[in-house]
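Transcriptional regulator, TetR family
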Amino acid sequence: MPERANTVKDGRAARWEGQRERRRAEFVEAAIAAIEEHGPDVLTEQIAAHAGVPRPRLYRHFDGKADLQQAVCRRILERLTADLSPIWQGGRSPLELITGAVDTIVRWLTTHSALYRYLAKHSAPAHTGAPPDRSDALTDFTGTLAVRLSRLLKTVLETAGRDVRGTGPLAFGVVAFAEAAIGRWLAKPECLTPEEFGAALVRGIWTLLADFLVERGIKVAPDAPLPQGLAVTMLDPASASASE
């Protein structure tokens, strides 16, 4: 009899947890809609209104305001990652990969500028008051991009029998350069259209990468397609690891 009672109890707990996760996801989507409408300084009351629930009920599904903010930041970046995923296909040239990533990110951020500003404001634990071990969604995202780039460079060098040292710092530096440039342009476009800015950023990124490879005796044609296996394996998000 006790075993049956435990089974019933476990089943109820599982159903409650599943319902809680569904409601969390619904509230996160409502928060994103509220941010798009009201801007990055959206109020909790405005989020609750979009969700169609009173404010206290909203927080029943989150461990406070910081938990909600982190969940929203993660979801924003999941959307951007989904838009980027078609780019990591084989058969593309280095320049096509860089251009595709830059154009997608710039277009996404200009279309969803309120979400980007919310992300920049609330992603880092130091800004949210979250505990130190709380994941920083923006850092996780840029770190994943840097690891992909590092893995790609390392494989190119290994294939040619060249020194692979320095690929990690360079990759993280290139991503940091792109992030800083995009943030600056969004704040002060200085009469550059998204297309003009994107093209300039692509040239800058390619120059950094090409110079790094040339120093190691490798000349990569920017318009030559990468081998199918190289592009797919090295840029597979499921295999990216920030430990590299």
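thats it. Residues 1-62 form a domain with the Arc Repressor Mutant, subunit A fold (CATH 1.10.10). Residues 125 and 165 are 31 Å apart (CA to CA). bye
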